[in-house]
């Protein structure tokens, strides 16, 4: 009995409570074991896994269905001497894996790391004896029916190489797999309701394009061309040898496809009579992260690479393979032919690339168009994905190209695993909304919408029972156990079945089902065009030298690009720096100018205020002085009268003092009664006089004080008067001076006038003499007309007379005039 280790800490593993039952199942897997049939029995037990329906809303929360299918041992495997009991089916939902001796798992467990026994549960487990029909009935059929009712579906097989994935999907001619059976259900369902015209074709992700007559013709040609490939091959094949070993692709005879028609299409909901249906299929593969159309004829030249297709997204983010060939098929036989052609291309490409089988993920897609009247009311898609084997490169001893393939395969499966794990984790409230790396591989990117609720996914895990691949199988099981925990949230039908968009022959939107944001779509597509399709090509088939050359070329391009970017960046930075500096300088200049202006204005204001204060102070001081003068001003008469009063009082006071002194000198005893009486009177007088004196003294003091004050005022007034007198005197003196000066100047002026008069007189005399001389000359010229004298002017004559040695009166006069030059210039007023 195997030791059961506590596995509760491993999320992917469930512990079976009944160890004995497990033991018995374990035995049941051994060949020749009496319980052998039990596996088959177990595997046929149908189990409806917790499909819960949220009653509050129509949203369905359904666990991802994960089915396990165990492949029977092949003859060779049975013949070889290896452990046959490592896979034990406990019941229809759980399986136990017992590490065989020599496996890495066993070695680790012997070292105390990990366990040797693992148990996993599935939606349903199908043993090695399960027929294709049973498997289909219990797994995919319901999903195909849902698909016919409008639910998108994705079915993918996962497992190590040689585990039976392709067999499960495609099957053999005698025992077809889930795909032909699904096709059969579909065509049975749409029987008699087929839309024969080819003018409605799938477009982008889930839209439809209306084709014009020419395009329809073209589509027919494409279909014929694709089918002709198969015909050629069949012809060649039949010519070459009818006895050659039958390969899968060549042995399928569509007319002979026979399997249990267990599909009961009558249980499908039946408003279908009102509708017509069109089926379009495509077949493509993802190899080394490149998408290739398997219906595209392969290039004739060996070295020529296949052209890769691009994965794009439509305006709402649904991924689709651009330029993928969609073929309109009218029967399951036609669909089969398409599958066969794809298989042929796949295997041919494998041969060309020196590949082993299934190094790629192949996807057979079926689009069902439901046409109601003239409208396409629904487009649903069923994809069957045959994933590449998940073996590890170390195990399969892969190198070079195979290593790269394995890396890519493992990578895309790893991303698939990551997505599934992330989806599972997102279910917990704690980590809701976590990142799911759908975009990290083409595979997950293409099926993102399905995982996100736009359809239902289903996983078929294929395993063989070989001890040699135990470790890989364990890995697959762990992966699938995680997948099983993913709960798919499928929105209510009303939301899910949003009518597709219909576009015209040139992809232009037709307003059948609302407005299409064509611009956005166009811009998206044109953006896509920017990328070089050449980059997407599969370069792995080129020779190493060419690849190195390409790498070098790319490196150079990269370097040049980087350099260009760097230069551009530096230039931009410099420009920005300069601009900023300029801006800073300008703003600084502006600020300093503003500051200077501000300073100036403040200074001006301050000066104005200062001046105002100064003026106000002056005014105030002047006013104060005036007030004081006014207050202290006493008219002179009053002052003199007061002075006289004071003098009078002084006299009276001295008299009184004298009398008092004389009285004090006289003795009282010696006085007579009269005298005594007089004395008493005098004493009274004296007291009164003293009092009066006292009063007068006080008055005197007050007067003296007043006099002192008045004296001061008088002194200041006298001083002021003196100052004024001085000023007046000074002014008078200066006036006198000016007057004297004026007088002197007037005297000089009269003198000059006199001189001028004298000069005028002299001038008149000279004029008179000149006229006399002129007359004399005239007379002389009359007297001696022959004797001609050189005619001279008045000025020449004057000169002559002046310079003549015979000095006349004129010469002397001129001399005297010269000696006393006339100066009319007045002396300035001082
Ligand atoms: N359930 C089954 N019953 C009988 N034979 C099976 C079954 N499953 C697989 N086989 C056989 O096992 C072999 C390998 O199967 P298949 O080619 O489908 O494996 P695979 O997982 O697709 O491998 P690869 O990943 O390398 O393509 C085939 O010969 C197939 O006929």
Automatic annotation (TrEMBL):
<feature type="coiled-coil region">
    <location>
        <begin position="581"/>
        <end position="666"/>
    </location>
</feature>
<dbReference type="InterPro" id="IPR019821">
    <property type="entry name" value="Kinesin_motor_CS"/>
</dbReference>
<feature type="compositionally biased region" description="Basic and acidic residues">
    <location>
        <begin position="777"/>
        <end position="786"/>
    </location>
</feature>
<dbReference type="GO" id="GO:0072686">
    <property type="term" value="C:mitotic spindle"/>
</dbReference>
<feature type="binding site">
    <location>
        <begin position="159"/>
        <end position="166"/>
    </location>
    <ligand>
        <name>ATP</name>
    </ligand>
</feature>
<keyword id="KW-0206">Cytoskeleton</keyword>
<dbReference type="InterPro" id="IPR036961">
    <property type="entry name" value="Kinesin_motor_dom_sf"/>
</dbReference>
<comment type="similarity">
    <text>Belongs to the TRAFAC class myosin-kinesin ATPase superfamily. Kinesin family.</text>
</comment>
<dbReference type="InterPro" id="IPR001752">
    <property type="entry name" value="Kinesin_motor_dom"/>
</dbReference>
<dbReference type="InterPro" id="IPR047149">
    <property type="entry name" value="KIF11-like"/>
</dbReference>
<dbReference type="GO" id="GO:0007018">
    <property type="term" value="P:microtubule-based movement"/>
</dbReference>
<dbReference type="GO" id="GO:0005634">
    <property type="term" value="C:nucleus"/>
</dbReference>
<feature type="domain" description="Kinesin motor">
    <location>
        <begin position="63"/>
        <end position="486"/>
    </location>
</feature>
<dbReference type="GO" id="GO:0090307">
    <property type="term" value="P:mitotic spindle assembly"/>
</dbReference>
<keyword id="KW-0597">Phosphoprotein</keyword>
<keyword id="KW-0505">Motor protein</keyword>
<dbReference type="Pfam" id="PF00225">
    <property type="entry name" value="Kinesin"/>
</dbReference>
<dbReference type="GO" id="GO:0005876">
    <property type="term" value="C:spindle microtubule"/>
</dbReference>
<dbReference type="GO" id="GO:0051231">
    <property type="term" value="P:spindle elongation"/>
</dbReference>
<keyword id="KW-0493">Microtubule</keyword>
<protein>
    <recommendedName>
        <fullName>Kinesin-like protein</fullName>
    </recommendedName>
</protein>
<keyword id="KW-0547">Nucleotide-binding</keyword>
<dbReference type="GO" id="GO:0008574">
    <property type="term" value="F:plus-end-directed microtubule motor activity"/>
</dbReference>
<keyword id="KW-0067">ATP-binding</keyword>
<feature type="region of interest" description="Disordered">
    <location>
        <begin position="776"/>
        <end position="830"/>
    </location>
</feature>
<dbReference type="InterPro" id="IPR027417">
    <property type="entry name" value="P-loop_NTPase"/>
</dbReference>
<dbReference type="GO" id="GO:0008017">
    <property type="term" value="F:microtubule binding"/>
</dbReference>
<keyword id="KW-0175">Coiled coil</keyword>
<keyword id="KW-0963">Cytoplasm</keyword>
<feature type="coiled-coil region">
    <location>
        <begin position="714"/>
        <end position="776"/>
    </location>
</feature>
<dbReference type="GO" id="GO:0005524">
    <property type="term" value="F:ATP binding"/>
</dbReference>
